[in-house]
Amino acid sequence: MAKAVDPLETMPVSRYAGLTRWGLRLIFAFLVLFLYLPIVFMVAFSFDASQTPSFPIQGPTLHWYDVMIHNRQLLSAVANTITVSLIVSVLATIIGTMAAFVLVRGRLRYPNGIRIAFTMPIMVPGVLVGISLLIFFSRAFHANLSLMTVIAGQLVVTVPFVVLIVASRLQSFDRKLEWAAADLGASPRRTLRHVVLPLIAPAILAGALICITLSIDEFVITWFTVGNQPTLPTYIYTKVKFGVTPEVNAVATVMLVATLLIFGIASVVLGRGRRRLPGRRRGAAPTA
Amino acid sequence: MTAEVVTGVEPAPVTVASRGRSARLRELAPFLPAALLLGILFFVPLGVMFIFSLWTTNANLDIVPVWNLDNYAQFFQTGAYVRTLAKTVVMGGAVTTICLVFSLAVAYFLARYVSRRWARLALLVIIVPFWSSYLLRVYSWQAILGEKGALNQVLMSLGLIKEPSLLFVYNDIGTFIVLTYVYLPFAILVLYASLERFDYTQLTAAQDLGASPSRAFRYILLPQIRPGLITAAIFVFIPILGEFLTPSMVGGASGLLIANLIQTFFKNALVPQGAALGLLIVAFVTVLLIVFRKYLRVEDVYARG
Hints:
The complex is a heterodimer of chains A (about 290) and B (about 300).
Chain A: H1 17-46, H2 63-70, H3 72-105, H4 111-123, H5 126-141, H6 147-171, H7 176-183, H8 188-217, H9 220-225, H10 232-241, H11 247-276
Helix pairs in contact in A: 1-11, 2-11, 3-6, 3-8, 4-6, 6-8, 7-8
Chain B: H1 3-6, H2 21-28, H3 32-54, E1 56-57, E2 63-64, H4 70-77, H5 79-113, H6 116-127, H7 134-145, H8 150-157, H9 172-197, H10 201-208, H11 213-224, H12 226-241, H13 245-250, H14 258-267, H15 271-291, H16 298-302
Antiparallel strand pairs in B: 1-2
Helix pairs in contact in B: 3-15, 4-15, 5-9, 5-12, 9-12, 10-11, 14-15
């Protein structure tokens, strides 16, 4: 007689189901517009002839890119930023990864307390980290502010990120793999080098990438610890305060494209690594 | 899983702690650089700030080591300061609320109606703006919300307003819009992580048992994603307590928050007063961190995608 009916099809579907779905789509579209509007403006005004980012638009030009590559101060700020971010991310990744191993495996006392201690530099407002460092450097050490103090300040926020990210990967790490390696005669050093490190490499790389992006864009702490060699964000801030010149929009556009490229390459590399790794917690299979 | 195969293996004694103190020290040595770094560059400076907060300044604005709690008392006795603090908390609450509502809708949409592959792409699209200069993105909002900005142009060409409105920027509304813009993606990432794990057949089951969709949402879905909601709220609310850049760029004179006040103290060489206010915020944040320690998955918020 009648065909078997899928019970789900007889479910009373809300009259508003279709409406809800369209509403949610609309919200998502609005979100994307909201998030991209400032970026679009930033990029657009880097090609616009007008002096200030305002309407009406005066016509396309590459003038600001020309100004950019001839602005010595700006270029040295970019160079400072790159130097600082490379040093910070290398140091933070090494220091943080070492600490993460002990945090997960060292059977430290008060692990929760230590966790909170490592979360504090991230969550305590940057203004306070910056100001306390400024007081500390200037009143306690009478130290001259320089890129060294900037690096020191940025390490305070980047190291905890690496510690927490690598520790979370280590926590889900299957230690039987290490025992198997040891069982097969590998020394602890060899096990670390050939089993553990390759498996947690994605987490270490993720930590390093976060350090680089944080460092490149770090403003607040840098603002308080910077001497007379500005980084890009502090340079932009002084420009914005005293009337912006559109070449900073040009720099930001270039930086955005560069970051996208770095992340694109990194995600391709990481994606390849991921597929080869057994026992990843989150299935990264694109077929899902 | 391969677990059954290996269960018979006795865990190899990997640790060396039992061999004595020096071995234990060697085991803990890798922790030392990070501990020293945080100790010297984070906790000691906060301690120095705490000491300063107990001292005072004389007429020449020199710091004199007179120990008392006057700076703290003075803060709470000054109406303007307390109002700024209250406004910051209200602003944080408002931004947190709108972020949660908005990102709940978006994350629900992505987790339920979009395939996982497209959802991941959508999350990437949501994060990408954050790879460009924070300062310039905030600055761009001036070009959108300002007197000659895009929003006014659009509203005028639609005939909704005749004169350019000054309502959108250099006041609390400007700060509110831009803070929402800055923190929304974090909330979406966190909420998507919990909604992705949710089993949506439970909603169908609830409705099968006679619950209305909204009832099912309220009593089945919301309780299960509570940890995500709390995490998202923390990661929006706490940073706003220290926001000084956004208010100083789009908040004008009236839209300033507590962190701007701290900065003003230090700019005017009122170090002990600024230190006291700063320490109050540090204490408040620390209490929040301890109370909500279960929900602080920093790595889940930042190391995704």
